Amino acid sequence: MDQLILSSDRYARLWEGTQITLGVLAASFVLGVVLSLLFGVMRLSDRRFVRGFALAYVEFARGISSIVLLFIMAYAVPILFGLPQENVFILASVALGLNMGGYGAEIIRGAIESVPKGQSEASVALNLTNMQRLRFIVLPQAMRVILPPMGNLTIEILKGTALVSLVSLSDIAFRIDLFRTNAALAETRTPDWILYLNALVIYFVIAQIINGIFRYFERRTNAKYESRNRPLPASDVAPAGMVK
Amino acid sequence: MTTTALAPDMTDSRSWWQKPRNVAIVAGVVVFLAVLGWLGTRDLTFTTDVQPDGSTSFDWAFFWSLVPDMLNAMTVTAWATVTSFVVALVLGLFMALGRRSTMKWISWPVTAFIEFIRSTPLLVQLFFLYYGLPSLGIVLGPLQALTIGLGVHYATYCSEAYRAGINSVPHGQWEAATAMNLKPSTTWTRIIIPQAVPNVLPALGNFLVAGFKDAPLGFTVGVTGLMFFATTIQARYFRPVEPYILIGIGFLLVSLPAAWLVRRLERYMSYERI
Lengths: 244, 274
Prior knowledge:
The structure holds two protein chains of two kinds. By secondary structure, chain A is an all-alpha fold. Helix content of chain A is 75%, strand content 0%. Chain A has eight helices and no strands. Chain A starts with 7 loop residues before the first helix and ends in a 16-residue tail after the last helix. Chain B is mainly alpha-helical. Chain B has a single domain, classed as MetI-like fold. Chain B is built from eleven helices and no strands. Classes of the chains: A mainly alpha, B mainly alpha. Chain A binds chain B through residues 59-60, 62-69, 71-72, 75-76, 79-80, 155, 158-163, 165-166, 172-173, 176-177, 180, 191-197, 199-200, 203-204, 207-208, 211, and chain B through 57-58, 116, 118-125, 127-128, 131-136, 212-214, 216-217, 220, 226-227, 230, 234, 240-241, 244-245, 247-248, 251-252, 255-256, 259.
């Protein structure tokens, strides 16, 4: 109990592991968001084929276990398609991103459906292209509904990045496990549970930071939305006589 | 004037356990779980007589020869999911009640624990239980570590669902219970929980499916489930493609119908409520 803290040398190695964890997280987050947007919009397409394809992807990505997908990506895909197997970082990020995209697409779809239909109709009336309608009218309003579940999903992906240690990427979980197996060589023996507790705390801190970032953006989008709905100043309100 | 027919529930005075259909469902579930418990606790070794053909990247004969072992491994994973989900359901309810407690010294640590478990990876939690705890003198077997790890992890999710369900019970129900001078224990068991739980059943069903997808992580602590099967085959025959594709298909075959059932339950529940 006297030493909950590890040596600074070990923290330096854990910091390297943290960078790998954050790298995988960032790569899979970017891919996940792109896939979410793409398939979330495709799920609402007018064409049956496009809708069906998006549904198939979403069901696949949500139905398969992330760990199985990761192992298929890291071991089976390179052999089947003749890809270089050395680049585990990219393969692992793609696996996690594919997984995130399935859940994210459902979030985006729900959020787009929550925007009142009149908004889309108005933008059609204003002769905006489909892209403009999505970019300037629908998504900014859907953002309020997207952000809270997206924050939770990002934390789920952070938890998922621990799995990459199993395909021998040296992230936090990998390095902590290495400390345990190398413990016999170390001069001072740290109890194993303290090692794992340290790893858990690092993950917890990262999750809280992600949470804070999403809270900040939630507050910003909400503030924008509130200001737009503020009652008009008195001078802009039509005189009582003009109202039918 | 014709008399309006009463809804079936209003003419039927039988309790839910007196209706044959419900009894059949419960009996079916019990038999299924008993068989699963019997199948899922066997000692398994994974091997096949078919030697893979090294010249192709995907050998169909080898693939089909793996199917029986995969099904055996599936029962282990499914049984581990069921046992840990029972832990999650019970523990989650207590966590939800603890978090709601008006006593700060109960609610604060419970809240902190829930937040901590929810935002840290299950993998490291399993390592903590299996490799970390022996240094404190607590030694857990593989299946015990997985059941506790997965159970506690999903208990925190379930507790959030329960909390939402409890909050969704109208305030008047509490006031009526107070007006009728019911004890707090009676209020909880007879008034609040019976109304809160049906609302959260679909959410709990989703967690069951999600738990099934996390259960193969048990291979890191030596539970002979699906991932254990695949890694064993990979190490023994140097063939990663077939076993991993096979368990991927196995997963989809179980979790897609399960997710579909949960969605049906969701629709049925919202229909019942209207």
